[in-house]
Structure formats: C-alpha cells, structure tokens
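Input (structure):
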C-alpha cells in the first residue's frame, strides 16, 4: 500500500515509513527517505548476458500491469478462461518468477508430487526454480521444481517437443546440457492454477501442461512437418543437481516409455521412476547419450529399444576402489510421431514414483510404483485432468472469498496459491515412499575418486502411523521449516488441517525410521533412528538452515485439536492416538538433548550453557567460510531459535502429559535461554546497550576491542548491530532483535530492566517502543566498507527486511506496547515494498509460500506472531473477507471504508460487541463470527491502546543461567 504524504506527518513513524514506487527499470525506490550515504535505490539483479524478454526485441513483453482490464490483469499475458474457473481466474503464477522470488509458473495441484513447469535451460541463482521471467527461451518442461527456494535442485525428466523447423540449441554451463530449445514471447504464454500454455516460436508448436497429484500431463499440438519428436531427457541437470544414472526403455507393445533418473545434489540421494504413455502411435524412438570421450552427444545404435540399465548403470571399479558412472549417465529418447500428412495433437501422461517403476498388472500382481500412480488419470484426457486440477484449486482457494481492491485481489489469490506449493506429496497411492539415510546417490559404494566415504543406505518405507502394517496417511516432504513454520503451516491449520496433520505424521516418520549405518570401511554399526525434519525433501535430510522447527508445527496441531480430528478420521483407536502423541513428545525431546540428538547443531553446548559460543576461524577456510570471521556466524541465532523450540516442546508436553511432567519444567526453563544472549551493556568493552550479541568461549559478549580466547585473534573491527555474518542467520542484530516470538512480553520487560540500569525513571516498554521506532526509521549504510550485505536483504523499510524471514512478524509488535496504529502503518509500508501483480512482485525468495503466506494473513487482517493459536490484529486489506471454517460456518472480516489511504482502525466490533483488543484466538476464528472494522486515514491512538488490549503474556519457566552472565551484562 502507498501512504498519502499527509499521513506521513501524523505520527512518529510518519517520518519513518516512506512511499515506495517503481522507476522506469522497475527497481524499488524510496521517494521520501534519504538512505545515508546511498542513492536510495536497491541494487538491480545482474542479468549478465542473459536475453531479456525476448532477446530479439518484443515491444509488448513488459510485465507491468495493463490498465485496460482492471478485473483480471495479467499484463501482456492473456488471462486463462477455461471451464470450471472462478477463483482461479485471479491466480497469476508469473508473480515471483522474476527478481528474487524464484517461483515457477507451471502446472501442479495443492501440495502435489508433480510440478510440471518450463525450464529456460540456464544455470544460475535466478534459475533455481528452472524458470526466470526475464529469459524468453525454453528448453522444455520438467516434472519437479522447488518454489521460491534459495538453493537449486530437482528439475527431473525434461520433456521438449521439436520438429525440423529449427536447430536452436542452448548450451550454457556444461557440455552435458546441449539442449534443443525455442524462443517464446510472454504475450503467447498463459498460466493459472493447474494449467500452463506457451507457443514455441521456433517450431510453431503449442505446448500445454496440466497435472494430477502424481502425474504430469502434456499436450503438444504439432504442425505438419517431415519429422516431429518429443524429447524425454533424463540427463538434464541444473545448479546443485547432478544426474548419477539414466534409464529409458521403449515398450513398443504398449506405446509407452518407462525409466528412471537417479540424482545427487542438495538432497544427496534422489530417485525418480516414471512411466510415460502417449495417446498417439509412436513412429520410432531413437536414443542419444553424452559420450564422455568426445564430449558431445551421439546417437545410440538404431536397433536400441532401451538405454542404460533398469538396475542402474553405475559400477564398482575394484582395481581403483572407486564408483564409476555408467556409459549412459546422460541419456535421452527422441520419440517420433507421424506429422508428414497433417498436424497432430499428442497427449502424454508421465507418472512419477520415488519407489519403483513398479508392476504394470500384467502378471496379475497388484499395481505398484509409477504404474500405480498412473491410475490417477486412467481413462482421462488432458482436458479431464485439467478440469480436475482446477476443481482442486477452486475447492482450496474458494475457502476464502475476498471483495474489494481488485488489483490486490490477484496478488492475494496468487499468494494463497503459492502457500500450497510446498509440503509436497512423497508417497505413492499405496503409501510407499523412498527414504535415504546416509551416503550419496552418485557414489553408492562410498567410493568417489577423492577417497572413501560412507556408502549409500536407503530403503522404501510405508506411511503407517499406528504401526499396524497398513498405509494410513499421506507422506509429505519438502519441509523448508526455518522459513515456513512462521506462517505457511499456520495458514494450513485454517485451510487444510487434514493435510497439516499428515505433515506432522510425516515428520514423526522421519524421526522414527530405523536404519543400520555403515562406515567407510563397510562395517555395520548399531541400528539407530533419525530426527525430526530440519530441511528435507525427496526423502533426504539436507541439514540446511537451523533450528528444531518441526516443534512449532507439532505444537500447533496438538493445541488446535487438528491431529486428534485427523486420527479419529483415520479410524485410529484412542490407544493409538495417545501413543502417537507420546511418540511425538519423545521425538522432540530426543532432538533437543545433546546425548540423544541426531545432528541438531550445537545442541549440547546450548543445553549446557544456555547459549552457543562463537570463535574465529582457526584453519584456512573456503570462499564461503570467508564471508564471516567466525567459524559459525549464526551462534546467537541458535539460542534465540532453540529457546522458542523449547517453548513449543514444553507446551506440547503440557498438552499431552500435563505440567507435572518433569520434562515440562525442564523445557519451560530452557525457553528462557534467549536471555543468555542479551547484554544490558554500557561497560567499557560493551558500549552497545540492550542488544543480543554473540558470546565467546569464556562467555564474554563480543562487542568492542574483543580478543578471541581460543585463537588469540581479533576481527579488526568492533561490533555494531548492523554487522552481517557475525552472529545471526542471514541477518544482523537489527533483524534478529525481536526474534523472541514466544515471549515478546518477556523481551519487553527485560529491555525495561536494561533501560532502568541507566535511567531509573524509565517507563515500562519505553525502550522496546523506542527500539521499534528506530528499527523502522534508520536505514543501513550500504556503503560501509566493513560490512557485507547479503542478497537476502531486500524489501527494506528502515532496518526491516520484508524479503527474508527473521523479521516478518516485527510489524505486529507495536501491539504489545499499546500502539497498534503504528503496527497498521508498518504493515502497509512492508506490503508496499514487497508485493505487486508483476513477475517481480515478490521482493525475496518466496520459500515455499512464506512471503506469500505473510501477504495472505496481512490481507485478512491478522497474523500468528508465535506461529500458533494467537493471531495479532494488523490492518485488513479488503472490504470483506469470508473464511469457510466448516460446519456451515464462516469467519467474516469486514473493513468499512477501507482503501489504500484508509489503513488505520478507528473502531471494531466482534459479533456485534465492541472489540478493542489487538489479538484473536484460533478458536474464535474457527467458531465463526463477524469481525467488523471501521477504517480511516488518520490513526485512532485510543483503539487497542489499553493495557488489557495487548496480546497475552506467553512466557513460562525461569531463566537459570543469569549467574553465569559476564559482569555488567545485567
């Protein structure tokens, strides 16, 4: 939202929050605030030599909104208008495909296994999703994609239709790519939820995509031509991904292909098996592979009907003690169709499975693997599948109906759509799924060329929560939890509670699955279990990011009764239900204790000290390590985040076993360990007063004139709150300062104590409020030579970063000091710098819908600061928002007189009674009712300002480590 200039003079933050607009290059610029020592512009994304939109010049390729159609505005893209569409008309999958959003525009279903989407064919950070809007080339359509991630993987099984009209190729970054490709124009490209279409200009072929949960469905309309082919490329790889093995077989009798792609990358062991059926007769199939001697692609012998081995082509070279990739590691099939007399439309269905190609039923045995998953679309053509995908999205998105600002209506429903692109289906229809425990797919024997490593240990397991030998829940994966716990899962708790319950059962299976580890010498160890997910996908724990952020999701489904309801629906006995909840507690406690934890970083040190020590590098480090002077640059973040996790564990224990359980007291006390990183300061060596800071191995705070007690070295500079890469994950001391979501009142009170150390007359909450004002009003110095601004530092309002996760909740915190009108202004300012209905319309990595979910909650008028059952009131965006909460009930938010200027709440009623508090509970929402706001363009500083209007105090337990704090820290 954009403020009127008259609003900016009305309050303290009026001088704080600037208007944001777009210059001719669509870079966000601040039109009110002068950034110290800077020119006020955010740095553009360097496209290098990449072609832009398209490379030959397309005057109407600009993705800025059109003013001619204010209802459905897709810029130059023609809006999709197909049967069954209502809410889905508003979904614009191109939002976030440019700039840093890293989303993809292709076809998928809610939380679907298949994400069938275009690939430009280039490597690079902007191509992490496979598609970058400002590159108007395509090399085909692959079946798996990551939405909004900051690291690249997947893009499995690339399919590309071609004919004799062009020989255009893309070969960027690796000779193993060498991809047949085409140019396109954005005006010839369409997308909505569950459907994608583009005209491939080089070939005059129309490509259309849709999907069921486990099957990608293609339709290629070929013109008449002497030779028309569909390329099925199992060797295609991008960014961190690495193809380790390919196999493709032409099953002539059944007019289909079967095969696999095995890969190694960010997730160390990925297996995609497939079956691909065609509705038109295959004329011929020729195979090609990358010849490693000549370093080019060559055709396999003409009589080949398969390439690679169904059992995998990798071998073990005993003489040199190393794994060797197969000859056909990078393979392709060119599937030819007869278009010599007339054009033809070819429909193809490609089913995925992580477990096996499977049994096709011809031997009277049950269908399994990809063959089983293919039955999702049995006897259905492209249009049937597309309609079902549309109906799935309509059912989900239609659970909330908004009316009002038409421009933001598209942004809203697209954000809602993006919120359900993670937590993807991983199990087959029979409940089986792949699980990797150790090792890498590229080196199954643990023998790479550089030495010996642990061999691959993996298995196929069953989604069986009550251990009765029968599949019961849907096994999900793709858990980007450091990001999504904040709002994606809380959003699902309202709109998709059953799926969220299955997500938690999936987390439990990660923790409980037993395996026998094998060391590099081949010796088997003792059987052990895993851990709750940190950052997982495709059956792999990647160890990316930090924290035990399964815990807030588990607590959420326990506290809201979601897990109980789902288990009852699944037919579990009360004994089974009690057992599963007890097992969840065991899994959380196991992860959180140093002696039993399996891979939670620094958990032993944290458990013992209440904090994690920082130390300078003591050995030569790689280029990534040199971004920080410290061996671990996130040490203060661990304590802040682990203490929040401890709160979630304690509250979960209380729900399942009661507060008399000694584990409740243990973790309730640990939930206060965030205080161990807080320094009152003011001493000679700690001049910064009242900040979270790193601590060294002697427990001293790292501030001014610090010397590392371990190495004897120093950083050569003094700490400041704006210093990146010192103590906070992807952030600095400003952006992590308010990361005590589980105990905001406790943070406010501790800051008051710090304030009174130097000013005995200080009022309660004064420093907290002042720090918020400073946070929103002071901009970082981007020209500081001793600081490194990460790419994640985007969507700035003052020190606030809307383009990354750590401070997404901060705009709501004025509610805690009785100044909700500032929260309303801060939310509007944050919206303005980050979101619009364009390809560049998400200001940072969307991280599987995290930035998008923030927008959904923001538009509805409330947000879960602590990712749980309490939602802080913000400022509603639409005139009406009606949420279907089931049982024929709805929760309705009405905002009278709301507009882009009228962002301030004047008064409110809830079910006809005056409503002055600045929070809601989950039960209040799910029971249904009417929350009515009256909005205005000037703040009502009385509404929500009373002490009993603030969100509840949620602090529990005691801080046990105060005596070990350095002198002067209190």
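Output (sequence):
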């Amino acid at each position: 939202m954009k403020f009127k200039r008259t609003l900016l003079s009305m309050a303290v933050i009026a001088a704080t929050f600037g208007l944001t607009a777009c210059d001719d290059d669509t870079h966000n610029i601040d039109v009110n605030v002068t950034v110290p020592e800077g020119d006020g512009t955010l740095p553009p994304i360097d496209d290098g030599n990449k072609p832009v939109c398209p490379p030959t010049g397309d005057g109407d390729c600009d993705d800025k909104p059109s003013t001619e159609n204010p209802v459905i505005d897709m810029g130059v893209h023609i809006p999709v208008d197909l049967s069954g569409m209502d809410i889905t008309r508003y979904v614009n999958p191109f939002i976030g495909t440019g700039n840093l959003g890293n989303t993809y525009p292709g076809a998928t279903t809610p939380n679907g296994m298949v994400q069938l989407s275009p690939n430009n064919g280039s490597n690079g950070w902007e191509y992490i999703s496979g598609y970058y809007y400002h590159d108007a080339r395509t090399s085909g359509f692959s079946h798996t994609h990551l939405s909004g991630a900051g690291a690249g993987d997947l893009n499995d099984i690339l399919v590309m239709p071609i004919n004799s009209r062009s020989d255009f190729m893309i070969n960027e970054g690796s000779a193993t790519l060498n991809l047949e490709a085409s140019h396109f124009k954005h005006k010839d490209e369409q997308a909505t939820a569950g459907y994608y279409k583009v005209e491939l200009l080089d070939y005059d072929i129309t490509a259309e995509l849709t999907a069921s949960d486990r099957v990608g469905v293609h339709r290629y309309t070929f013109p008449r031509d002497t030779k028309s082919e569909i390329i099925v490329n199992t060797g295609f790889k991008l960014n961190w991904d690495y193809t380790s093995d390919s196999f493709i077989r032409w099953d002539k009798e059944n007019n289909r292909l079967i095969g696999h792609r095995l890969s190694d990358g960010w997730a160390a062991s990925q297996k995609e098996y497939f079956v691909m059926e065609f509705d038109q007769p295959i004329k011929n199939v020729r195979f090609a592979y990358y010849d490693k001697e000549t370093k080019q692609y060559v055709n396999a012998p003409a009589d080949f009907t398969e390439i690679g081995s169904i059992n995998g082509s990798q071998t073990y070279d005993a003489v040199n003690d190393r794994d060797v990739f197969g000859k056909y590691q990078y393979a392709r099939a060119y599937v030819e169709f007869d278009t010599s007399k007339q054009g033809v439309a070819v429909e193809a269905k490609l089913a995925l499975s992580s477990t096996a190609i499977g049994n096709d039923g011809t031997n009277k045995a049950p269908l399994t693997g990809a063959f089983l998953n293919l039955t999702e679309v049995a006897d259905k053509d492209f249009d049937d599948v597309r309609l079902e995908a549309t109906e799935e999205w309509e059912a989900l998105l239609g659970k909330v109906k908004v009316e009002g600002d038409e421009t933001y209506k598209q942004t809203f429903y697209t954000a809602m759509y993006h919120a359900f692109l993670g937590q993807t289906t991983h199990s087959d229809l029979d409940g089986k799924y792949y699980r990797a425990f150790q090792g890498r797919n590229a080196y199954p024997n643990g023998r790479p060329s550089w030495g010996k490593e642990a061999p691959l240990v993996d298995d196929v397991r069953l989604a069986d929560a009550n251990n009765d030998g029968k599949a019961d829940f849907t096994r999900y994966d793709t858990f980007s939890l450091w990001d999504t716990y904040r709002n994606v899962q809380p959003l699902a708790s309202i709109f998709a509670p059953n799926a969220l319950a299955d997500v938690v059962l999936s987390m439990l299976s990660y923790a409980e699955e037993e395996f026998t580890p094998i060391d590099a010498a081949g010796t088997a160890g003792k059987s052990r279990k895993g851990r709750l997910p940190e950052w997982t996908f495709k059956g792999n724990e990647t160890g990316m990011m930090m924290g035990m952020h399964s815990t807030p999701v588990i607590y959420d489904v326990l506290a809201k009764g979601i897990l109980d309801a789902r288990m009852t629906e699944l037919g579990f006995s009360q004994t089974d239900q009690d057992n599963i909840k007890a097992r969840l507690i065991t899994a959380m406690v196991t992860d959180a204790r140093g002696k039993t934890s399996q891979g939670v970083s620094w958990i032993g040190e944290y458990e013992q000290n209440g904090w994690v020590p920082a130390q300078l590098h003591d050995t030569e480090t790689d280029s990534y390590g040199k971004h920080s002077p410290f061996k671990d640059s996130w040490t203060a973040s661990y304590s802040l985040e682990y203490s929040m996790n401890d709160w979630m564990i304690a509250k979960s224990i209380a729900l399942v076993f009661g507060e008399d359980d000694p584990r409740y007291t243990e973790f309730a006390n640990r939930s206060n360990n965030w205080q161990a990183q807080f320094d009152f300061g003011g001493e000679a060596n700690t001049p910064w007063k009242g900040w979270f800071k790193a601590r060294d191995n002697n427990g001293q705070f790292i501030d001014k004139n610090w010397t590392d007690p371990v190495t004897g070295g120093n950083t050569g500079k003094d700490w400041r709150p704006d210093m990146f890469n010192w103590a906070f994950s992807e952030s600095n001391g400003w952006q992590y300062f308010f990361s005590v979501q589980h105990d905001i009142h406790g943070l406010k009170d501790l800051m008051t104590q710090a304030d009174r150390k130097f000013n005995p007359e200080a009022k309660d909450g004064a420093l907290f409020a002042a720090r918020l004002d400073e946070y929103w009003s002071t901009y970082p110095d981007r020209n500081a030579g001793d600081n490194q601004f990460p790419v994640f530092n985007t969507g700035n309002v003052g020190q606030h970063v809307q383009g990354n996760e750590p401070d997404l909740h901060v705009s709501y915190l004025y509610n805690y000091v009785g100044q909700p009108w500032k929260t309303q202004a801060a939310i509007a300012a944050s919206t303005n710098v980050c979101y619009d209905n364009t390809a560049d319309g998400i200001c940072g990595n969307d991280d599987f819908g995290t930035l998008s979910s923030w927008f959904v909650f923001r538009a509805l008028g409330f947000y879960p600061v602590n990712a749980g059952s309490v939602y802080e009131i913000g400022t509603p965006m639409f005139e009406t928002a009606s949420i279907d909460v089931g049982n024929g009930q709805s929760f309705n938010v009405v905002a009278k007189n709301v507009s882009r200027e009228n962002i301030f709440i004047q008064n409110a009623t809830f079910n006809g009674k005056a409503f002055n508090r600045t929070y809601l509970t989950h039960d209040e929402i799910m029971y249904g009712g009417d929350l009515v706001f009256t909005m205005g363009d000037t703040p009502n500083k009385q509404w929500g300002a009373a002490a009993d209007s603030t969100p509840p105090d949620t602090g529990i337990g005691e801080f046990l480590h105060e005596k070990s704090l350095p002198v002067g820290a209190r």
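Notes: Residues 216 and 350 are 5 Å apart (CA to CA). Residues 1-70 have pLDDT under 50 and may be disordered.
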